Amino acid sequence: MMVRVCMLALLVASGAGGQIRQVAAGDITMVVKGDGSVVGWGRETFGMAGYPPSPNETIGAPKPLAMPGPVQRMAVGRSAVYALLEDGTVWTWGWNDVGQLGDGGAVKRGWATPARLAALADIVDVQAGFYHGLALGRDGTVYTWGPAAPAPVAGLPKIVKIAVGPQHNLALTSEGLVYAWGSNRDGELGNGAVTTGPTLTPALVVGLDRVVAIAAGGAARGSSGAIRADGTVWMWGSHAEGMMGNGIPTSGPGGPGAHNPRPMPVKGIAGAKSLVLGGGHAAVLLGDGTLRMWGHDGWGQLGLGTSGFYHEAPVKTRIAGVAAVYLGGSRSYAVKQDGTLWVWGPGSPGGRGVLRVHQHVPVLLPLP
Fold this sequence. Notes:
The protein is mainly beta. Helix content is about 0%, strand content about 45%.
């Protein structure tokens, strides 16, 4: 499975299609509506939609899902789902083979019924890695879990934003500095080095300041990104799928330029408002409501009308009037300024309608 492990902008778009607070996507996709209700679709193997697990079950089209209360935002991991409710509590469900549900690994089975993480309260953001979760408290404290139960991350100052990749984490301070910890085999921690083992203590990303937004993502490899106050975009980590956006051809995980342990600017981007990293592709929302994307385009996930390529430099996606952009695995989503939801990228054998076939350009996805 591939997941979306990246920063999701908390933008609200309203209009004919109603309000959408957020899209959280992976094998299962969740859309949080403006009233806190949720619709979802995708593979139900691990009970990730809140139904009993079934290896053959697929929700082929958007379907209303029962939640423990009004939802503010959600995060989808490889086999678990996390929901942040409007009351600041966090609920988890799905598989628990390595303790990713936050119970300390006490129960290694699937949970179709959401359970509250009692250790967390007054939370304002939640993110998912492959097998771990991260939460941001209103007081600026960052919490992590999986395989252990939730606990504060030591060594961080007060944090205002968080982002999670497959196996690494980013945290942004109000002063515009970025801390990173976790896997660093591709230089995704931005500390100037590449290391085989994980770094457990957060450290500053080198040579980067005045940051206003952060993002983390990747499929098997890890990549990181940031937007500075001047609207420029900076990337570091793996370039195996063209994720650095530097125009240099991809060369595989071990080839020249594959590991980038220091932030580098993405040329041709100005006026960036938000940055999202998916499972091998990236998207920037500009102030004029258009998108610039780069990376893997194997199933049309860059929205160019083509497929089967890598684009190592930013290209303009065939959509305008965008209010928010989200990436999940190899699929891409946008909420337009009129409140409608659009999707492009790979289809699913169990999907119905526009979700069944590969979409090489953005298409409207009706919601119930």
